[in-house]
Structures are given as structure tokens and as C-alpha cells.
Amino acid sequence: MGVLGRDESLRQLREAAVAAQDGRGGLFVVRADPGLGLSALLDAHLDEMRSAGVPTRRIVVLAPHGRTALSEGAAEWPERGVVVIDDLHRADDATLLALHALADELSEKPLLVVAGRHPGAVPARFARLDRIAVVHDLAPLDDGAARALLTELTGSEPPQSSLQLAAGNPWLLSQLSADDRAVEVTAWATGLAGADSPLLRYAALLAEPASVEDLAAVLDSTPVDVLAGVERLTALGLVDAVEGAVRLRHPVVRHDLASTSAGLRSTAAKALIDRNAPAATIAEHLVHSPVSAWTTAWLSEHADQVSPAPTPAVLHLLERTVASLVPGAPEMLPLRAALAEAQLWSGRSEQARHTATATLAARPEPPIRHRLRATLALSHIFAMDPENAAQALDPEREHGELPPRLAVIDATARLLTGDLTGVERALEIAEPHAAHDPVVALYLLNIHATGRLVFRDLSGALELLDQADALLEVAAADRGQWMMTTLLRAVVQDLRQDGAALETLERARPVAGELGAGMRVWLHTITALALFNNGRWDESLAEVEAATALPDLHSFDGPLHGIAVTILLYRGDLPAARVHAELAKRAKPRGIALFYEQITAVVHALIADLEGDSQRALEVVRTLAAGQVGVHDGHAVATISPLLVRIAVDGGDRELAEQLVAQLQELISGDSVGERVALMYCRGLLDGDVEVLLDAAQQFAENGAAVAAARAAEDAAKALAASGAAADARSAYLTAVERYAALTATGEIQRADAELRAFGVRRGATGPRRRPKHGWDSLTTAELRVAELVAQGLTNREAAERLIVSVRTVDSHVSRILAKLGYSSRVEIVLGFDRRT
């Protein structure tokens, strides 16, 4: 096996041997956990010494009693050279006494005694030797040495996962590619464990880390006895124990012991039932055992607990148990309903639909029938097909009013299709039951949160989502509604220009993957939008690419390609933008994708505007302003109004621009900084008000809306140029270019260059006009406006309301004003405002 990675250990042994040849002998103890290559190291040292002409001797420890050549107590030691004793932890007491007797004389002898042992073996026996010897602890191989060893053994570069399996243990590394690895590793580990091998096997079988109490239960032992066994296994380097939890040190040992100990699973399951362990934990053991009447009875009793959050083992156990039942067995229909639910929550919507449909053909009683109808409807919702979700519930309407849980699913489906009348009817059925059914209450909270989001009551939406999160924690286990709550929260955060939206989306990503492609593509769309809004365009394009690589985009083609079009236009790649625009045009939006249809419409307006076809661009804007796109009933204007107003103003349709500004004024709720600044910007565009545009540009920049900040500065530059203020126009223009450059928006820079050149404004080689750092002239337009309102006696909150910005923004302005003016209070601002020069 070699001694790869042991150069330092060999060097220390070599130096000790050289010192011994000079008459300064000693005792050198090497301690190493099993499998770390201690014997190979000692053999290599002996070979090196023999090659150098140094006399050597190896003393063998004989099993089972540990006798050695030193056991008689009158051994004759060599006068000089190197003596090696391996497995000293197994040696008898007489051998240790002989070493003690020799150790005091070694410092004056040309003799080195090297002893190797396991560090955890009865430490008290070796305490004195460790005090008088040079002690060297052999560590696991580092990644480089482990990789080299595996490459030498297998002839190819090993994956990182292989290195992690053996945790740097050379013997285990040597077994990774063996055909009979599980048998060999199990024999090695249980041989070391001895009488504690049952404890080691159950520690491998139970959830990692295993608790002492669970181990005591499955072993029918006491926690005290288990702790004693754990200490022995820890001493052998097989397990680690921290705060009452036991973990096998090497993943490969845990895996192989578990695979060769499957016969203990049933015993473990029954013992854990007595401990009231979670049903999913028990199912993890039962899935490895033959299906018995006892297994079927237990699973029938606990199916409702395991099907909403199924592990692969739970799903497999349900499949095996259902397959084992004879036709007409009383457990058949309930377990098939549970199997359909488990398939649904595992992201296998097609299988869930098939199982539910086939089971409904058996005409189950209402409770089972309702569960199957719910599974069918939800499978369509997860596939972004709410129309068929609602239709899946139609047969149940023939029996009368929908049950409350089916009614909230119906309401969700109809909300996603834009059938608001149908939503109201479904809510009338469900709402009286919310107080008594947390699942119904959870659906209702998400439905109402969606409504508040559409109508731009963002604070109200967050309040409802907080209530939904509380229900999910304590009373309602529903992965689909958790996903809905989390994605809605991310959308609200993004609308509020809160960077936490991206963190929220990352939490949702694993669950979206488990629930199926429909949820994944929706997550990609929301993430791409949030990344775009945060100026992270390369990452946004990567999300679009990941989504469009999926086999089914579930009608999100339009918004996804629309996001790509917008970025490519800003970057000046019109040919690529046209390709994506054509793909977006072919999309047929339905379901949730209808809520994003305005993105597709806007990009067509942008392309038309860029191509100089202002009439076509204006026609698209009029369609959006009339609320004829998507299911927003005109409310989508709130998020895209700056683009629309800009096109209307540039196209010379002031009436349309005024209509859009009036709509935005009516729609915004006041709790979104982004929408308040958007309104300010739109008013500045409409009125050609330079100060308002510059103020909006600064506030966009402060709130992370990079592209909007650049465009507002550019529009201010054009307004200044039109009024003849060329120097100020150039300063604002350079600010816009700097912001565009940070986004690599080369297309916007080229377009702005052309438009400003028409006014005689060019960037040139020098930088923008600099403001002084202190005094009233150092204040920006926005800061001067805030100072004026403070001088009028307005509080920061009142000033924020007047300026349509956040209180935080005004607080920041006031702080900067005080710093630039050298003032310490608002009173000084009031006094200084009138006498400023």
C-alpha cells in the first residue's frame, strides 16, 4: 500500500535513529487509529534503516494474550540499532514493564525503540510511557496524499466524493474500489469493535447522528451501558460522540455496515415505535424489510403522516405495500390515496395523476375520493395548468357543494386563470371553515395575499404571508403552500426593492426541484426578474438559460425570453434580442404565466421604439394602459410605468403619458419605495422637470435600481441640453454613462450618445463638473429640497410624504446635509437656510 503522505513521520523517525547512533537513544511512540497505515510506516522505517546498514529487530505481539519476546522479563536488548514493536496496545503487562525498565537507560545507549499503538486503547496503561517517550500522532492523509493513493490503486483520478468517504484512512481508501468492499469493511469494523459490534451496527442504521437513547432502545440496553460502549468505539477511532449523539467517523463504514445489517431494520423500527419516533424515520427502516401484515397495519395507520413530506424510502415503502395487497383488501384504497399524494409531493405529478385516476375508478367513499380529487387538481396546478385543475374538481360538484379543502384548491386554480367570479364563489364555501381547518386557512391566506399583491398592498400581503408561515410551522404541513408562500414573499420583496428576495428564492430552490418542472420554471422566472432588477444581468441570463433548457416551459416562454430581450437590448445586441422576441411572441400564456404577460408586451414596445417605429410602440403601450394584457386588470402598469411613460413622451403622445401617470398615482400604495420613486420619475418625464429627474436618479441609485437610475440621469441630461445648460447636461450625461457602463449596457450608451449628440452634448475626455465638498453649494438638488422642507418645519416623515420617498431616504439626506454644512442639529438647518449664500 506504500506510505504516501508520510514523509514527515519518516523524517522524524530517521532523525531519532541518527541521534541513537550517536549514543543518544530513546523511546519513540507512534500513535495511530486503525487503518491509518501504522504498520506500513514502521515497515518502511525498518527498510530504510537496513538499507543504511543499521541493525534492526522487530518484536512481534502474539495473539490472543499479547505475549512477546519481552514477556519473560529478562530480555537481552541489542547494544545498538533500531527495535520496532507494532501493536503495543495488545501487548501484555510484562512487555510494558520491560519497556519501562529499559527506557531509563536509553538516553546513554545507541538504541532506538519504536513502538506503535492505537491511541484510545486504555490510555492509563500507557500514561508513563507517553511521558518518557517522544510521542508522534499519525494523522489521516490530507486530500493530496489520499488522491495520490487512490490514483495509484485505481489508475484514474478519483472524484472528491471518494476522498470524503474514507476521511483520509489509507486502509479504507484501499477498499473503495474492491468488489467485496461491504463485506471487507464490515469485517474490519466489527472485528475492531468486538463485543460492541451490535452497537456499531445500529449506530450505522439509525439516523445520523444517533442518540444514546435510541441506541439503548434498539439494543434493549441502558443508556449507561451504551455510553460505555460508545467510549470504547471512540477510543478505536470508529465513532465520534458529541452531546449524547453518536456519528460514525468514516462515511464508507456507515454505508457498508448499514448495507450488511439490513436484517436488523425491523427490530430497529419496532423499538423506535416504542420511542414515539417520527413516522418517516420508522419508514426508513421498514422499507428494507419484507412487507408483512404488521408493516401494512402500521403504514395504514401512519400514511397521512408520511405522505405529505415523503422521502424516497417512504415512497418506495408505499409502492411495495400497495403492490403486495390483494384486490379488495381494506387497506388498498387508503394506501393508494396516500401513494398518489406521496408521488405528488415527490414531484412525480404524472404518476400521481395516474394513481389517483385509477383509484377513483374503484368508486371510493367520500373521504378517500376527496383526497384523490385534491391530488388530481394539485398535479395540474404544479404543471402550471390551472384550467384542468378546476376541471378535475367538476365531478365532485355533482355530489353537491365542494368540501372546504377542495374549495380552496378550486379558488387557487381559478385565481390563476383570472376567473375572479369563480374565486369568490369558492371562497364563500371555504371561508366559514378556516377557523377549524388550518390547511383551509393556509390556502386562504395565500389567495388573499396574491390579491393584495396584485392591487399593490405590499405591506398587507406581507402580513398575510407572515400568518401563513406561522401556520406552516405549527399546524399545517403542505409543501405546495409552503412553496406558494415563499415565492409570493420573494415577489413582494423584489417589488419593494429588497435584496432579501434572492435569499428567499434560494431557500425555495430545493423544494421547487422536488415538486416538479412547473414549479422549477416559475422559480427560474422570478429569480431571473429579481436578478435583472438588482443589476446582475449575467446571472439573470443564466437563469433564463437554465429554464429554457427544461423540456416543458409551462407557458413561461414569454416572460423568460422577454427578460433576455430586455437585457440584450440594453447591451446593444439587437439581432439576438429579435430572436428571443420571436420566441416570446410564439408563446401562448396560461395559468401563472398570465401574470407576467406584460413583460412580453413591453419588449415588443422597446424593440419598436429602438427601430424608430413610434406608432407601433405607442400602440403596445396603449394596450397595456387599457389593462388588456394578462390578468392584472391594469395593475401591472405599476412596475413598468417608467418604460411606458418614456415611450409615450418620446412618441409625442402626452395624453397617453398623463393617463399612465394618473394610473400609477392611483395604484401605488405608498409602501414600495421603488413605486414612489417611479412616480416621481414619471412626473419628471412628463413635465421635463430636471430637478425631479435628478432626484429620482439619485433615489433609484440608492435603492439598487441601477438601470432606472441611469435612465433618469440620461433624461435629466436631455432636458438640461434642451434648455441650453450644456455643462450641467454633460455632467448628468456622464453620470448616466457611468451607471450604464457598470451594467455593461453598451447598447444604452450608444443610444444615449446618439440622442445627446443631437443636442450638441458629447462626453469628451474630461470628467463631470465637481461640486464643492462643504457648504450650501455642496448639496445635491435632492438634499437642497430636503433642507428647504426642514426649514419649513416639516418632520422627516412629512418630508418623505411630500417628496414621495421613504423616511429612510430623508433620514440619509438630513445626515448628509448636517455633515456637509458642519451643523449638529436641525435647528441650525432652519436658521442657516434663509441666510445661505
Describe the structure.
With 837 residues, the protein is mainly alpha-helical. Among the domains are: 133 residues, Rossmann fold; 37 residues, no CATH class; 100 residues, Orthogonal Bundle (Arc Repressor Mutant, subunit A); 59 residues, Orthogonal Bundle (Arc Repressor Mutant, subunit A), CATH 1.10.10. Helix content is 65%, strand content 4%. The protein contains 44 helices and eight strands. It has a five-stranded parallel β-sheet with strand order 2-3-4-1-5. Helix 38 packs antiparallel against helix 39 and helix 41 crosses helix 43. The longest helix has 17 residues. The protein is globular and about 110 Å long.
Offer a quick outline of the entry:
With 837 residues, the chain is mainly α. It contains 44 helices and eight strands.
Flag low-confidence runs: 765-769
Averaged pLDDT:
87
Largest sheet: 5 strands, parallel
Strand tally is 8
Which range does the strand content fall in? under 5%
What is the share of helical residues? 55-70%
CA distance, first residue to last residue: 86 Å
Report the radius of gyration as a whole number of Å.
Answer: 37 Å
Could you name the CATH topology of the domain at 7-139? Rossmann fold
- CATH level-four homologous superfamily name of the domain at 7-139: P-loop containing nucleotide triphosphate hydrolases
Q: Briefly, what CATH class of the domain at 7-139?
A: Alpha Beta
How do the strands of the widest beta sheet line up side by side?
2-3-4-1-5
Molecular shape:
globular
